[in-house]
Amino acid sequence: MNVQLKKGSLTMIVLSFIGKEKQYGYQLAQNVSNYIEIAEGTLYPLLRRLVKEKHLKTTLEESTEGPARKYYELTEDGIAYLDELVEEWKVYTKAVETILNETERK
Questions:
Q1: pTM higher than the cut 0.85
Q2: In what residue span(s) does the Transcription regulator PadR N-terminal domain sit (predicted)?
């Protein structure tokens, strides 16, 4: 997959997964990787940025399988931001699809 396409949609994808249920980093990486290839070196800086921007909050929770895990959860700002990104995505992809259909070579 084109890196620029992935980069442009990754924030929305990450927020979407976390919006469904709070997740810890490795769990999130596995969930995203089921659909698109992602490097941990890409995910964790994005999560830190989203926390800093107050779109996500974190909590530490004990784990039965090792040390406590840091879980990520959407904030109210994060919910609004995700809604905005999804709406922009829908408008953008509809426009691109229209352009591709209208300019399709026969």
A1: yes
A2: 14-83
From first to last of the 106 residues of the chain, give the pLDDT tens digit.
667 777 779 999 999 999 999 999 999 999 999 999 888 788 999 999 999 999 999 999 998 888 999 999 999 999 999 999 999 999 999 999 999 999 998 7
**Residue 23 amino acid letter:** Q
Question: Which of the four CATH numbers 1.10.10.10, 2.60.120.10, 3.90.550.10, 3.30.1360.140 does domain 3-102 have?
Answer: 1.10.10.10
Amino acid occupying residue 76: E
Burial 31-58 (b: 16+ CB within 10 A, else e): bbeeeeebeeebbeebbeebbeeebbbe
Q: Cα separation of 29 and 13, whole Å?
A: 11
